[in-house]
Design brief:
By secondary structure, the protein is mainly alpha-helical. It has helices at about 5, 20-30, 50-60, 70-75, and strands spanning about 35-40, 65.
Amino acid sequence: MSPYEIVQAGGSIEHWNEEPGAAWMRRLLAAWPHHVWLNPEPEERWEWTPSIRLTRELLEDRMFPLTLEGLDRAMRGLQ
């Protein structure tokens, strides 16, 4: 996902959305307050990727790497 899709209305490359992706993410988080995001990108790249930074902020820092250790941390984060 590009930063544009997260923060801009109409940001989708497939069709026009009247709301930015962040609005939809907030709806998901309101519906499921116990959440985690498993990110397949190596954790050391997260700070250098704008869309990952934005997503991580939206998720209130509940992003974990898609590794065995990351899964363990994510499960503890759901308790």
